[in-house]
Design a protein that fits this description.
The protein is an alpha+beta fold and about 400 residues long. Helices cover about 30% and strands about 25% of the residues.
Length: about 400
């Protein structure tokens, strides 16, 4: 009797997904719990495993198809099944097969210049990087280049075409919807301050080696900011709250979302009960989330339920920005690039490592006084990290 491969429950409020890729072809043997397909939801990409051993006898949902929870994606037969041509994978065109490699001895190839996520996508797609037209900055292969290369030939743009149309991923569509909804719903304002990072830099330099040796993870600035934010949130609970209809829901727990950029888009995994974690535990959790985000392995539970968000645009070189709220949260803290610049210290001018910080907040629930005070507490805690230990 054939076993059905079905779309599982995808979590609260998610009723539909997109078949992003089949990992097995019709007629391939499969083992129990072996991944056979990937689904893309509004939040994550998840693997679908075989419910039984046998042969993939039918593929009922093509790549790119939108499928509801409970839909049958395919069937697994008990015995061997001859692969049919019902869902063939088109062979590369003659022009692609005969296209010469562009590797040059005088410099790195387009593949070597490309990011790890793109290289992984090329490998998973079974493509020859030499046959992919690289249109990214600096001759890199972009994700769009890979998607175009692995699309059926009738969907590929002609060589030299000025524009390339690629279907927006479900995750990217969801990001766009949520950001626009935040702008349309919340009364978003942003306030700024600057932090002298001298003490935080010195603290990290003093303890970096011992910390990494003991805990097996690097000591970064994010754990300091997470802990500083918790000190400020406890003093100003409206920034850790949300609006639900005519009610304000104050959260007495501190689940801090940390924005992580990926090739697919921005995701915000949540560090649960961060107030109960040590600096090392916060750093380990963030490092693990970053790894899982790059590999597309984050779960829906890991991306849901945050009470406050921190975004670090400084890793990309951003000097200042106005972050957008992550609804239904009422606040988001933006970190930025550390830049050495002259500042007045008493009656003298000194060169100090400075960082601009920004708090975007929902003015419907957070007043300007609270927002400014919040950033002042962040500034005080980071400039004197001992305050974090005493929650001052």
């Amino acid at each position: 009797m054939a076993a059905e491969i079905k779309v599982p429950s995808l979590g609260e409020s998610i009723t539909e997904a997109t078949v992003s890729k089949w990992l097995k072809r019709q007629g391939d043997p499969v083992a129990v719990d072996e991944p056979v397909a990937e689904l893309e939801t509004d939040k994550v990409t998840l693997e679908i495993s075989a419910p039984a051993a046998g042969t993939l006898s039918e593929i009922l949902a093509e790549e790119g198809a939108n499928v509801p929870v409970g839909a049958v994606l395919g069937r697994i037969a008990d015995g061997p099944v001859s692969p049919t041509a019902a869902h063939p994978v088109p062979p590369p065109a003659r022009g692609d097969r005969e296209r010469p490699s562009k590797q040059e001895s005088e410099g790195p190839t387009a593949l070597e210049r490309s990011g790890p996520a793109v290289r992984k996508l090329i490998e998973e797609s079974g493509l020859d990087a030499a046959t992919i037209a690289a249109t990214g900055p600096g001759g890199r292969i972009s994700k769009a280049d890979v998607l175009v290369a692995r699309a059926p030939m009738r969907q590929r743009p002609a060589v030299g075409e000025r524009d390339v149309r690629v279907r927006m991923t479900r995750l990217r569509r969801r990001i766009a919807e949520r950001l626009k909804a935040a702008q349309n719903t919340a009364a978003i304002l942003t306030t700024f301050n600057e932090i002298d990072m001298s003490e935080a830099v010195a603290l990290r330099e003093r303890h970096r080696e011992a910390f990494e040796k003991k805990h097996g993870v690097r000591l970064g600035f994010m754990s300091i900011f997470v802990k500083a934010a918790i000190v400020a949130l406890k003093e100003l609970p409206a920034i850790n709250a949300e609006i639900d209809g005519d009610d304000i829901v104050y959260k007495n727990h501190y689940d801090i979302g940390v924005a992580v950029g990926t090739e697919q888009g921005l995701v915000i995994p949540v560090v649960r009960d961060a107030d109960r974690l040590s600096f090392a535990e916060v750093e380990k959790t963030i490092a693990e989330y970053a790894r899982k985000a790059r590999d597309g392995k984050l779960t829906i539970e890991e991306l849901s339920g945050g009470t406050f968000t921190i975004s670090n645009g400084g890793i990309y070189g951003s000097l200042m920005s106005t972050p957008i709220l992550n609804p239904p949260q009422s606040g988001i803290l933006g970190m930025h690039k550390i830049e050495r610049r002259p500042i007045a210290v008493g009656d003298k001018v000194e060169i100090r490592p400075m960082m601009y910080v920004a708090l975007s907040y929902d003015h419907r629930i957070v007043d300007g006084r609270e927002a400014v005070t919040f950033l002042m507490r962040i500034k005080e805690c980071v400039e004197d990290p001992a305050r974090i230990l005493f929650e001052m």
